[in-house]
Amino acid sequence: MTHRYVYGVVDSDDVEFETDAVAGATQIYTIAHRRLGAVVSDIDTTDPEETDEDAQRHDDVLREIMDDGHTVVPMQFGMAFESDRALKNVLRGARPAFRRAMNDVEGRIELGVKIVRDEDDDVDRGTIEESVADELEPIAAQSVANDLFSDRLVLNRSYLVERDDREVFDAAIARLEDEHEDLTFRYTGPFAPYSFVDVKIGAQR
């Protein structure tokens, strides 16, 4: 039996393209309810295994959707539904939440910044955080702190940035790198705005 694997939700009913998708699928298409579209591919399970390869394919599909000019509310890896009917029921029930999320992230991308110190360096975390905030917070629409999963991590934040402000943000990162030459900056993205949406869509069946 064929099920539907969901990458994200868009304000469109005509997203369709071919690419390397999750679980060996090649066709991306839209299941829609009242102009709200779930971007999906076919899959033979409702409990897909999260391999590194498929996690990357999930992110790559979202990036293609964004590159095509669509605002997307991304789903985390592994969201699959038994039928079109089950998926449309979710779109119907969560429609207000999806609309709010789309308004929040429309025209925006997520960028990630990690700052790493050398193992033997003693740094003033507060001063660095203040310096970064002075440069980046005026540009970003929102930002959130992420886990400091290593004692060498000085800062780990995600920023929601207008697409049109990407070059301005890039320049701010470059200034910070020049200012803090003793630190390593890991600047990543753009990503779909995972960190800035929180839509609970209930059961997968």
TrEMBL record:
Cellular component GO terms held in the UniProt record: gas vesicle
Broad class of where this protein is predominantly found: other
Compartment(s) where it occurs, according to its Swiss-Prot or TrEMBL record: Gas vesicle
InterPro entries noted in UniProt: GvpL/GvpF (IPR009430)
Keywords: Gas vesicle
Family under the similarity heading: Belongs to the gas vesicle GvpF/GvpL family.
Name assigned to this protein: GvpL/GvpF family gas vesicle protein
